């Protein structure tokens, strides 16, 4: 399991709970099944109350902003970050010579 899969499963479970198709007790049991260990050995779990991420620190589950941990979610997002942070002279050269910009927002064309 990874972050995206767990978040999709969480949303599905939340929808079932809110529509009355799942009891609160069953919901919390299923939420606990979304717990997983990342490749660097960190344990993660979604907070069933609000969908935020919790990170196990060895003693307790602590709120954690995973966006700092996860980085870009797609190649397109990574390219946008890289190109936005390039010096303008390099950006102009890439703009003239690269088809990679077709993946970006129209404002960069």
Descriptive account of the structure:
The protein is an alpha+beta fold. It has two domains: 3-70, no CATH class; 75-108, no CATH class. It is 46% helix and 12% strand. It is built from five helices and four strands; from the N terminus they run H-H-E-E-E-E-H-H-H. It has helices at 3-18, 24-32, 66-70, 75-84, 88-97, and strands at 36-37, 43-46, 53-56, 61-63. It has a four-stranded antiparallel β-sheet with strand order 1-2-3-4. Helix 1 (3-18) packs antiparallel against helix 2 (24-32). The radius of gyration is 20 Å and the shape is elongated.
Total separate domains: 2
Tally the helices: what do you get? 5
Order of helices and strands: HHEEEEHHH
The SS-based structural class is: alpha+beta
Provide the fold topology.
Layout: H1 3-18, H2 24-32, E1 36-37, E2 43-46, E3 53-56, E4 61-63, H3 66-70, H4 75-84, H5 88-97
Antiparallel strand pairs: 1-2, 2-3, 3-4
Helix pairs in contact: 1-2
Q: Gist?
A:
The chain is α+β, with helices and mostly antiparallel strands. The protein has 2 domains: 68 residues, no CATH class; 34 residues, no CATH class.
Key terms:
single chain; 109 residues; alpha+beta; 2 domains; 4 strands; 46% helix
